[in-house]
Write a structure and sequence with these properties.
Elements: H1 2-9, H2 11-25, H3 35-54, H4 70-92, H5 99-104, H6 110-137, H7 146-173, H8 177-190, H9 199-203, H10 208-216, H11 218-232, H12 238-262, H13 266-269
């Protein structure tokens, strides 16, 4: 709670650091913020060709929307995953990249992680807005569900921030962590129903404990919530919402605790 109080008192610094992240993200780039749109679109096209056309993975039918469209099905999960992945990678280097600032002046260092994640939220909002337009063109009237989408984005932001706090601090002490996380993200991606419907896992001949372990993955819940709101046009199951909310609260407070534990020696390690 003391850390949250310090963060509240440093909100002006948080705003300035977030703006700095936004201004410097595509600095001296010809296309600038257009890259935040081209990257997910390029990924969607590649995955749609490989998994939708070549491997013939059929998207789930929207219930009750009736929508059957693989690019839309893919994007509803892919945008949430890209945000989490970028937040984890960006947070890992947030402290290392600001070592000079940390050594010169004291301020709540977790602000650096918060600013990194909040800057990525802007891209997330733009990408989601374009997805909404795409869904409307397909005839999916998603507008009544946008409030739920925003709440899901807030939950995912807090979840990503908690993970970012842990990784940013551990990466200062264990520099090999960023390479391990890269491998872990690849495994986590394919262990989440982003490019395939979860029905394939339910129908597969897998041991019961494997299916249980799969469902315990919090990103299964997050992807399910975004798909329910955007693709199916329905409110997600309350149990699913409660589950990801518990994960979010637990990871965030664990992240804050880990950060506070190792923060006193941070300047020395850097």
């Amino acid at each position: 709670m003391n850390a949250l109080a310090d963060l509240s008192q440093s909100r002006d610094l948080l705003v300035n650091l977030t703006l700095r992240e936004l201004r410097g993200k595509y600095k001296r780039s010809v296309l600038g913020w257009t890259w935040s749109l081209l990257n997910p679109l390029a990924t969607m096209v590649i995955f749609s060709l490989v998994f939708g056309k070549l491997l013939k993975i059929k998207p789930a039918t929207g219930d009750p929307s009736g929508l059957v469209n693989y690019p839309a099905f893919l994007l509803c999960g892919l945008l949430a995953w890209n945000f989490l992945s970028n937040a984890m990678n960006g947070s890992m280097v947030a402290l290392l990249g600001n070592a000079g600032l940390i050594k010169k002046v004291y301020f709540p260092r977790q602000v650096l992680v918060f600013a990194t994640v909040l800057a990525l939220d802007w891209s997330f909002l733009i990408e989601t807005a374009l997805l909404v337009v795409f869904l409307l063109v397909l005839g999916n009237m998603v507008l009544p569900w946008l409030l739920g989408v925003l709440l899901a984005m807030v939950l995912l932001t807090v979840f990503a921030t908690g993970i970012g706090l842990i990784l940013s601090m551990l990466n200062v002490y264990f520099r090999d962590l960023q390479y391990l996380v890269g491998i872990g993200l690849q495994l986590w991606f394919y262990a989440t129903p982003i490019i395939y419907p979860i029905k394939l896992v339910n129908d597969a001949h897998l041991a019961h404990w494997v299916k249980v372990l799969y469902v315990l993955n919090p990103m299964v819940g997050f992807v399910g919530i975004f798909r329910a709101l955007l693709y199916d046009l329905r409110f997600p199951a309350w149990g699913q919402v409660a589950y990801v909310t518990c994960w979010t609260a637990a990871i965030f407070f664990i992240g804050m605790a880990v950060f506070r534990k190792f923060e006193p020696r941070l300047a020395e390690e850097l």
